[in-house]
Specification:
Elements lengths: L1 H12 L39 E9 L11 E9 L5 E11 L6 H6 L4 E6 L3 H11 L4 E5 L4 H14 L6 E3 L7 H12 L3 H6 L8 H6 L6 H10 L10 H4 L3 H7 L4 E3 L7 E3 L5 E4 L13 H23 L4 H28 L19 H11 L7 H22 L12 H16 L15
Antiparallel strand pairs: 1-2, 1-5, 2-3, 3-4, 4-6, 5-9, 7-8
Helix pairs in contact: 1-8, 11-12, 11-15, 12-13, 12-15, 14-15
């Protein structure tokens, strides 16, 4: 049931390739797994006085084969060095939720999905689940923290897993496994991460980053491009881009903090990533996703070729015009209705402000009625239909003007072109049709 629900989220929303895969079950013992700092016991200390020293590591996981593992994952590892020379470690994971909740999808759409932090055992168990079972590469980076900072961070994590503290409201970009771990570290180092990364612009948008994970999942990728609005195309800074584990892994090496060894120098907050488990076989993603462009291009060609044929033959072949109008208005009205439903009923900001609602209107069901009438050979269009078409023209002009002046920037723009060309051809077709039913020469009421 859990797998079916996760597939449903991915298929309907497209964006949940970023959803971190939870640590829900203990992985089997794995021989030969690299360990950090000594013997892994998968536990935490009962008291800080019993620990000789603490190290904290950032753990990041690469993408896996399943769609909802394509965005990677992140966790924090606390390694406690004991006076007898041994060590024990615990991995803290912010990517868990109640996967059996029947309202899982609905809660996500409403922006009320609850996630929580949990302790998943030690490095060995984590590598067994993510590295062995899910075939994902795993990296470890030691954080340059003083002893006091490391103990503070370990204490915060111990407090975070308590039932009263562990829950948070999930957001697929701003409150996930990576950002929760990043922000916790940032609190300990006095805000150095945000201060140093926020002023630096990032060279890709959220949508472009998302496209890298949709290879082989064309339906979900096209759905994401249709129903997720312009917020995924706004410029972002490097700090915001660290929601992606791959970016976080690199960016943490670029943050400078005082050397915990007391040399007076500034050193990278995170050391070079150590590969402790490598994915076998081909990479899970290659960054190639072109489905939206193929769909948009084919749709544009079909709309233009068939629409021009219907336009040139109207009004002599009104049934052909009706066939084209039905074929265009039906998917346009379905897309427009779904966009509007997401905008109205979802509290997730990324589903709002969707520019495509200007070219795929929910009320295009009106045009479907006109198309069905033309199919029956009733070749005229009255004032009501003409008024509606002119309103649709105004929507298209608003989008085009927005693009010219930089106010509209949602991508890929190619997905808007079938709607834009469709409205233009529809306007030309209606101008060739009579406004009233043609007089057939019969006189009613005369003997």
């Amino acid at each position: 049931m859990r797998d079916k629900r996760n597939w449903l989220i991915s298929a309907l929303l497209g964006c949940l390739w970023l959803l971190p895969y939870p640590l829900r079950a203990q992985a089997p013992e794995v021989g030969g797994t690299p360990e950090v700092g000594g013997t892994s016991e998968g536990g935490t200390s009962e008291g800080a006085s019993e620990v000789a020293g603490i190290e904290v590591f950032l753990m990041t996981m690469g993408p896996g084969d399943h769609l909802y593992t394509r965005g990677g994952h992140a966790a924090l590892t606390v390694v406690e060095h004991l006076p007898d020379g041994s060590a024990r470690d615990a991995v803290y994971n912010y990517g868990d939720t109640d996967w059996q909740d029947p309202d899982l999808v609905w809660n996500f759409l409403r922006g009320k999905l609850i996630f929580f932090v949990s302790s998943s055992g030690g490095v060995r168990e984590t590598v067994g689940l993510y590295g062995i079972q899910q075939n994902r590469s795993i990296y470890h980076q030691r954080l340059a923290l003083s002893d006091a900072q490391a103990r503070d961070l370990a204490k915060r994590l111990e407090q975070a897993v308590l039932p009263a503290n562990r829950s948070y409201v999930y957001h697929h970009l701003e409150r996930i496994c990576t950002t929760k771990a990043r922000d916790l570290i940032d609190e300990v180092v006095g805000g150095a991460i945000r201060a140093q990364l926020s002023p630096r612009p990032f060279d890709r948008s959220i949508r472009q980053l998302g496209h890298e994970g949709f290879e082989g999942h064309d339906l979900e990728g096209v759905a994401a491009d249709l129903f997720i609005g312009r917020l995924h195309d706004r410029p972002i800074d490097l700090h915001y881009a660290t929601f992606l584990p791959e970016v976080l892994r690199q960016a943490m090496q670029e943050v400078r903090v005082p050397d915990p060894a007391g040399t007076g120098k500034r050193v990278p907050l995170a050391g070079p990533p150590e590969l402790i488990r490598k994915r076998y076989g081909a990479p899970a993603v290659s960054g190639l996703f072109t489905a939206s462009y193929w769909v948009g291009g084919i749709a544009v060609a079909a709309v233009v070729l068939l629409g021009l044929l219907a336009l040139l033959l109207a009004p002599a072949r009104v049934r052909l015009a009706g066939l084209w109008l039905v074929a265009w208005s039906l998917p346009a009205s379905v897309i427009g209705t779904l966009i509007l439903l997401f905008m109205w009923f979802s509290d997730v900001p990324e589903f709002g402000s969707n520019e495509l609602v200007l070219v795929y209107a929910p009320l295009d069901w009106i045009l479907l009625a006109l198309g069905l009438r033309l199919l029956r050979g009733r070749g005229w269009a009255g004032a009501f239909f003409r008024l509606y078409v002119w309103l649709r023209v105004l929507g298209v002009l608003a989008l085009l003007c927005g693009r010219v002046f930089g106010l509209a920037f949602q991508e890929p723009f190619l997905l808007a072109l079938p709607g834009i060309f469709g409205v233009a051809i529809l306007l030309g077709t209606l101008r060739r049709l009579p406004r009233e039913k043609p007089y057939d020469g019969r006189l009613i009421g005369l003997a």
